Amino acid sequence: MLKYLPGPVLGCLSLVLYLLNTILLTTPLLLIAIIKFLIPVGILRMYCDRAINWIAGSWIAINNWNIQLTNPAIWDVQGVDALDKKGWYMVVANHQSWMDILVLQKIFHGKIPFLKFFLKKELIWVPFLGLAWWALDFPFMKRYSKSFLKKHPQLKGKDLEITQKACEKFKTMPVSVMNFLEGTRFTPEKHHRQVSPFAHLLKPKAGGIAFVLAAMGDKMQQMLDVTIVYPKGARNFWQFLCGDVKEIRVRVASRPIDSELIGDYFTNKKFRVTFQNYLNQMWQEKDTLIASLMYQHAVSTVPASEAENIESPGVRQKMNPDMLHS
C-alpha cells in the first residue's frame, strides 16, 4: 500500500523508520558492548557477543520489513538457498552504491552469519552506526598513500596488524567476512582513470582478502561471489528510499576455498601471481554475467517488434556498459 505514495513522501517515511530502528536498537547494543569492554571475561564476552549479534540481526530484520513495506523494487535473487547460518564464509561483491550493503543484508539475513565489513576509519564517526559497528567488532582500517608511508615507514603494515586482530576475534563464533574487492564504488571516472580491463568493474584488489584467507583458512568454508546489478543503473541511498530503484538482480555463486587460495601473498611471489590471476578470472566471469543480466533486462523491456534489433551482437555489445552505469 505505502509503495504507491509520492517518491519524496515515501523517502521521508522510510528514512524515519530507518532512524527509529537504528536509535532504538543501538542503545541496548552499546550498553552490552560497554559491559563486554569493562569485564573482558571469556564466557561473559561470548554471551555478550551473542546478544550483540542478535540485536544486530533484529535491526536487519526490521530494515528488511521497511524495504518490503515502502520499496517497490522487484527482487530477482538466485544462489542463496543452500547456505548455512552456522558456517564461516568469505563474501565478495562488486560495489556501486551504499545500497549494496542493504542488498547484501537483505538477501543473506537468516541464511549465513552476520556480515562483518572492513570499514574506513572515518566511518566510526557516523552517528549511532559508527558506535554500533565498533561494538560489533567491525575492523576500522586507515588507508595510507605510498608517499605518506615513505615519510612514516613505522606505519607500514598497520592494516595487516588490524586485520590479524580482527581475524582472531572472528574465529570465536560463526561469521561472514565481507569484502568489496574493488576497494571503492564504481564510477565511470574511476573506471577510466584506472584503465580497467573490465567493462562493468574496477580492478580487484587481492592483498586484503588473501590475508584474511591465510589467517582464517582453517575456518572459512566457502567463498560467496555476489554479483549485484541494477538494470536501470545504480542509484544513491535517497533515490532508493524514494522508490526510484525498480529492479534489483543478484546472483550468488559458492566457490570452494581450497589450499591453492591460502598462502603468503606478501612474500611469496609465485602465490601472489596465482592468487591475482584467480581473482582476475573470477572478475572476468562476473563482468560477463553483469553484461548478460543487463541484456536479459533490455530484451524483456522492449516491444517484440524491436527485440530482433537487440539480438544483434554489435548492438548488444554496445548497449550493456552504457545501460548499466547511466
How would you describe this structure to a colleague?
- With 326 residues, the protein is an alpha/beta fold.
- It has a domain at 1-72.
- The protein has twelve helices and eight strands.
- It has helices at residues 7-38, 42-70, 99-108, 129-135, 146-151, 158-170, 188-194, 207-216, 237-241, 269-300, 304-311, 313-324; strands at 74-78, 89-93, 115-117, 119-120, 140-141, 176-180, 222-229, 247-256.
- The strands form two sheets. The chain has a six-stranded mixed beta sheet with strand order 1-8-7-2-6-3, with helices on both faces.
- Helix 4 (129-135) links the parallel strand 4 (119-120) and strand 5 (140-141).
- Helix 1 (7-38) runs parallel beside helix 4 and helix 10 packs across helix 12 (313-324).
- The protein is globular.
Helix content range = 40-55%
Give the topology string: H per helix, E per strand.
HHEEHEEHEHHEHHEHEHHH
Number of helices: 12
Give the DSSP E fraction (strand runs of 2 or more residues).
5-15%
Q: Reading side by side through the largest sheet, how are the strands ordered?
A: 1-8-7-2-6-3
Q: What profile does the largest beta sheet have?
A: 6 strands, mixed
